[in-house]
Amino acid sequence: MSQQIDYFAIAPPLALALTAALVLLLDVFLPHRPRTRAALGLVTLAGVLVSLGFVLAQAMTGRTLGTFCVPPALAGSGGPAPCSYVVDGFTLVLAGLVLASAVVIVLMSMTELADGGIPAGEWHFLLLCTLVGAVTLPASRDLVMLVVALELVSLPVFALTALKRYDGRASEAAVKLFVVSVVSTAVMLFGVSLLYGMTGTVHLSGLAAQVQAVTGVPVVTVGIVLVVAGFGFKIAAVPFHAWAADVYQGAPVPVAALLSVVSKASGFAGLILVLATALPGQAGTWGPVVAILSALTMTAGNLLALRQRSAVRLLAWSSVAQSGYVLAPLAVTGTIGAQAAVGASVAYLVIYAAMNLGAFAVVLLVARTAGRNELDDYRGLAFRSPAAGLALAFCLVCLAGLPPGLAGLFAKVFVFRAIVEGGLGWLALVMAVNTVIGLYYYAVWAARLFTPAARSLTLRAAPALWPAMGLAVAVAIVFSLAPQLVLDLTGL
């Protein structure tokens, strides 16, 4: 049997993979100078933009593309030939989110690498490899490709975390992330093997049809739970969240931003595909579990964020809380339908990415001067650097959902509306309480920006960081003024 490959369908990850190879070759043959580090960053940025261009071109066709397809008989399905790689609306939105976020992260990386303490070639190569997996994952339509893509997202991040040589915290963070990822992969593979053994197919469309025939079999339920638990590690959902703060704090700030947005979006993409595409008929089984996980995750994240004095640790626990908000609509998939539930979750992810990346960009700027990077280091930032101070203040009020940062408010409204329509009033109440808790620590941090400081820190120049900051804040402002853009993207 021979397969025809649709190269237009796989163009975005292919462009990133070719750019990664080019960066590695340039790093070998070009002299190691500051100009070379900047050149490698620009090549990486160009590769990301080319990949984003292919995503936009695919969106303009208005067609669903598929490749790596097999005959239905071999896939255990009686319908159309299932494909392992499918480009549809869901794929395009998540791939666009990942690549747009990658533009900001690459610019942040150029600032992180400017001092020469981290090898630029290896950094950009590993970053591009992570992006290949992150773009491939939402297009994956079989369990094997899902696992491979998810590991391609995860494995390079271990090395990225540890690339800051002679830094004990970075090495510790890399080890913790490695252990957690290995455990989550083992758990997920066990669940995948059980589902495959009971249904005889790895394609998500085939699973959706075959699982109905074995409903009520305990092994299938165990398989579903294990797969969900595996993705729970990736998105730092309770009770798989303990690694987040230490890893975020020990990793370079651009890697923390990568984990907070790109890695999280990839984890949610895989979880959504498994639940809403492969197991929609089992929503009565996994829906209550997801609702409980959502409530616990947002509550634990917010309560732990209250105690933090480190800026990165606060953003880490805030990111855990945000995972709870994204999970909430998935709990009512069986009631309001997969399209509405997935749309609400993806809409929240899109808005969250912009405001969170803006905050991380300012944190990186301050971290270059303040080694401990505590909240007190941000006192008077609005007077020392008005652009950075106002940018961070806007992102924080966005995350809190307060005016003028209405993007965060709209994101929470999307989620709140979905769970109320789904009949989970108790989860809506939990979310409302957690939103109030979140207001406190975001407001306290924002207030410090406008409080005179006893000592003034001089911020170091970071030319590549200002475009990253400006891009993230500009997108957050646009979403605050025109939330309908997000609704149109996600199909709500």
Q: Which secondary structure elements does this structure contain, and how are they paired or packed?
A:
Elements: H1 11-29, H2 34-61, E1 65-69, H3 72-75, E2 83-87, H4 89-112, H5 120-136, H6 143-162, H7 168-199, H8 204-210, H9 218-234, H10 244-250, H11 253-278, H12 283-306, H13 311-327, H14 333-336, H15 338-367, H16 381-384, H17 386-400, H18 406-421, H19 425-449, H20 465-481, H21 484-490
Antiparallel strand pairs: 1-2
Helix pairs in contact: 1-2, 1-5, 2-4, 2-5, 4-5, 4-11, 4-15, 4-20, 5-6, 5-11, 6-7, 6-11, 7-9, 7-10, 8-11, 9-11, 10-13, 11-13, 11-15, 12-13, 12-19, 13-15, 15-17, 15-18, 15-20, 15-21, 17-18, 17-19, 17-20, 18-20
Describe the protein.
There is one protein chain. This protein is mostly helical and 492 residues long. It has a domain at 279-492. Helices cover 73% and strands 2% of the residues. The protein has helices at 11-29, 34-61, 72-75, 89-112, 120-136, 143-162, 168-199, 204-210, 218-234, 244-250, 253-278, 283-306, 311-327, 333-336, 338-367, 381-384, 386-400, 406-421, 425-449, 465-481, 484-490; strands at 65-69, 83-87. The protein has a two-stranded antiparallel sheet. α7 packs across α10, α12 packs antiparallel against α13 (311-327) and α13 (311-327) packs antiparallel against α15 (338-367). The radius of gyration is 22 Å and the shape is globular. The model has no long low-confidence stretch (mean pLDDT 87). GO terms for molecular function: NADH dehydrogenase (quinone) (non-electrogenic) activity; NADH dehydrogenase (ubiquinone) activity; quinone binding.
